Amino acid sequence: xxxxxSLIAEVTSLAYAEGDSKDVENHAKLLRTxxxxxxxxxKPVETAKRIMYQPPINIALRMAVEFGLLxxxxxxxxxxxxxxxxxxxxxxxxxLLITVGICDEIGSCKYSANSVTRxxxxxxxxDGVKSLYDTVVPAATGLLQCLDNIGRRAPTTAYEAPxxxxxxxxxxxxxxxxxxxxxxxxxxxxxxxxxVPRWFDIWPVSNVxxxxxxxxxxxxxxxxxxxxHGHDLVIFKELHGSFPGRLVLQDLPxxxxxxxxxxxxxxxxxxxxxxxxxxxGKCQSTNRxxxxxxxxxxxxxxxxxxxxxxxxxxNPA
Length: 317
Hints:
By secondary structure, this protein is an alpha/beta fold. 53% of the residues lie in helices and 9% in strands. It has helices at residues 2-18, 24-41, 44-52, 54-67, 69-74, 84-91, 115-121, 123-141, 143-150, 162-167, 171-177, 179-191, 199-202, 205-209, 231-240, 253-256, 300-311; strands spanning 82-83, 104-107, 110-112, 220-225, 246-251, 266-270, 284-287. It has a 4-stranded parallel sheet with strand order 6-5-4-7, sandwiched between helices. A hairpin with a 2-residue loop joins β2 and β3. α4 packs across α8 (123-141). It is globular, with a radius of gyration of 23 Å.
């Protein structure tokens, strides 16, 4: 009980400090402490069941996206509501399937949208639900059989990875064959870091790069590997446009082909990071998180080698 009391006091203190502040560290600490409080308040069996029952929640969310429930709810006026029967008529889904847990239930089988509903209805997160579910679930379903087949070790190639085991091809090749999935993935990559601090919001860019940079048409300041449509680079340029050097956006050709006009000073380059890195020499590099179902199991040393080539250092491997 003493632990719970101390956590309640800490949550209260952090919540007061939060206010309208945009302090990233305080916000992260608040969420961590709330999670600790939940774990302290839960009985062990409740924690175990909450973890066990996460997959059905994801299934329900995928169905809500596919049926258009989120779009229908979000289109309502702020104070309006809709019944399960009306939702069924509007979306073509059977009424018994409409058990919405991502909105407010204001009466028996009567729902209204909340801020989470509207957030998930936005294109980026809406497509993120589709992309994550449609790639992770097949991989997870066949995971144990996949590991048994390769000897219960970490996969060493993309074709040994759980996703390829499930779909017979690596994930990005699968996306080439299903353009809608590639679009879901790209839209989610563009939206997933909205309202989340970017690396240059945390890393002391001005302090580190304030000296030693020399102008020149061939000099490269930053290479963003797997940059999608270059949203980070665009913001980086807005904040640090006075720094000399080229800003290079790298991604697969099918992503590069869909990028609209980039601001002057940012160049798009088609690149597969398992190939030799074409940009070499002293420059800063960043590579965003990539999917375990494919990329981190296909010759990961080649990614490391590419990054060392860009930064002009020696690969310790």
